[in-house]
């Protein structure tokens, strides 16, 4: 009997360790913190946040927006994440990847909860006019009908509990070596309150993450930009060979539903005194060239532009993807489709010249002081060195 009791106790002790240690890691890294605690720490210590297992990205961005109450915001995909508070002279939040673009019409109710909002910039990707995007929209709306989730109450449905706590181990194994992990253990509680990196991926990999304005920092690209230029060239080479631009595998057909969402967004924002400006972010020149000659992508791009022409008398639209006035270098992109800071500065400068009211919101002094130094560079701010010098712990 004692023999079986010993086995039973040993088994549960092992189980306890297997569960409690990952739980401690999730808590200590900030992975399991409520988003309000993450945002408070970020604002107090200029920290970066990057989740590893618990996907709270939308919940985090929405909480950041409501707590910051900015006057100007940016909507879009990951391709707009290099716009920062320092580029603006009014409170700003980057809501890239924080808004369900496939449900734009219903997102207005959330956006207008902020009484300070005055300007919305929307970075529109041409693949939002493909049937792939419309399928995502349908899935989201079907889910809304089935469980009652929508853009207003999504925070109540967010998963803030670790889905698979034991996934901590494979995630760490993929990102860092166990030797690095145990090397850091002696300093486990040092500088806990002032750390610059939060979240499982941000804390243990030091790759970067979201700043306290919602923009993103890629420390890997900053440390070794030449390797990223090579990576971009290889990615574009593969795109050229496949004749299938990013986000548009062959067989995609146009879908016009997004125009209805944009019109509804504009109408609702206008009713609250909020200006909407749409701009189409660029791709690296070689990638744009593929997009314009490949039949599926060029057809979808042309249909999007046709739809934009119908809206231009009501909604300002600027095209930087195919532009005669702006030429962007491949070195101003993080990879084959993500623009860097130099692109962001040049677009904001151009928008402020075309729409003078934006000069009240855009920090033209900062932009004009830095824009020439930023040409042909992925990065031009001094933010990165702060996070490289700081300890992970």
Task: Report on the architecture of this protein.
With 393 residues, the protein is of the alpha/beta class. The protein has one domain (18-389). It has 17 helices and 9 strands. The chain has helices at 2-29, 35-45, 57-68, 104-111, 131-147, 154-157, 168-175, 178-184, 200-205, 219-223, 225-242, 257-271, 285-293, 295-311, 341-354, 364-374, 383-389; strands spanning 48-49, 72-75, 92-94, 119-123, 197-198, 208-210, 216-218, 275-280, 317-319. The strands form 3 sheets. The chain has a 5-stranded parallel β-sheet, with helices on one face. The protein has a two-stranded parallel sheet with strand order 1-5. A two-stranded antiparallel sheet has the order 6-7. The longest helix is centred in the first third of the chain and has 28 residues, at 2-29.
Provide the fold topology.
Layout: H1 2-29, H2 35-45, E1 48-49, H3 57-68, E2 72-75, E3 92-94, H4 104-111, E4 119-123, H5 131-147, H6 154-157, H7 168-175, H8 178-184, E5 197-198, H9 200-205, E6 208-210, E7 216-218, H10 219-223, H11 225-242, H12 257-271, E8 275-280, H13 285-293, H14 295-311, E9 317-319, H15 341-354, H16 364-374, H17 383-389
Parallel strand pairs: 1-5, 2-3, 2-4, 4-8, 8-9
Antiparallel strand pairs: 6-7
Helix pairs in contact: 2-3, 4-12, 15-16
């Amino acid at each position: 009997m004692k023999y079986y009791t010993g086995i039973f106790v040993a088994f549960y002790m092992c189980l306890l360790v297997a569960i409690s240690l990952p739980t401690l890691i999730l808590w200590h890294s900030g992975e399991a913190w409520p988003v309000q605690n993450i945002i408070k720490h970020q604002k107090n210590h200029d920290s970066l946040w990057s989740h590893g297992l618990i996907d709270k990205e939308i919940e985090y961005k929405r909480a950041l927006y409501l707590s910051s109450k900015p006057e100007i915001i940016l909507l879009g995909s990951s391709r707009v994440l290099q716009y920062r508070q320092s580029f603006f002279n009014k409170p700003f939040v980057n809501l890239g990847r924080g808004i369900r673009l496939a449900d734009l019409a219903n997102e207005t109710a959330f956006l207008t909860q902020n009484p300070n909002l005055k300007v919305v910039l929307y970075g529109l990707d041409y693949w939002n006019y493909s049937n792939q995007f419309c399928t995502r929209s349908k899935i989201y709306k079907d889910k809304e009908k089935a469980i009652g989730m929508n853009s207003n109450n999504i925070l109540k449905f967010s998963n803030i509990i670790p889905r698979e706590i034991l996934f901590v181990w494979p995630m760490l194994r993929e990102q860092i070596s166990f030797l690095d992990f145990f090397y850091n253990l002696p300093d486990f509680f040092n500088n806990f309150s002032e750390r610059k990196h939060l979240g499982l991926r941000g804390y243990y990999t030091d790759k970067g993450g979201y700043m306290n304005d919602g923009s993103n920092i890629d420390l890997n690209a900053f440390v070794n930009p030449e390797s990223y230029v090579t990576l971009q060239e290889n990615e574009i080479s593969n795109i050229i060979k496949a004749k299938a631009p990013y986000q548009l595998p062959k067989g995609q057909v146009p879908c016009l539903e997004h125009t209805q969402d944009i019109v509804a967004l504009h109408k609702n924002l206008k009713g609250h005194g909020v200006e909407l400006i749409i701009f189409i972010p660029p791709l690296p020149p070689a990638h744009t060239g593929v997009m314009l000659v490949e039949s599926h992508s060029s057809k979808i791009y042309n249909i999007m532009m046709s739809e934009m022409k119908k809206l231009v008398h009501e909604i300002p639209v600027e095209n930087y993807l195919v532009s005669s006035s702006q030429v962007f270098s491949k070195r101003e992109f993080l990879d084959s489709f993500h623009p860097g800071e130099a692109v962001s500065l040049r677009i904001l400068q151009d928008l402020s010249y075309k729409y003078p009211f934006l000069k009240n919101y855009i920090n033209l002094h900062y932009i004009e002081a830095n824009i020439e130094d930023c040409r042909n560079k992925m990065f031009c701010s001094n933010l990165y060195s702060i996070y490289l010098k700081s300890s992970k712990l």
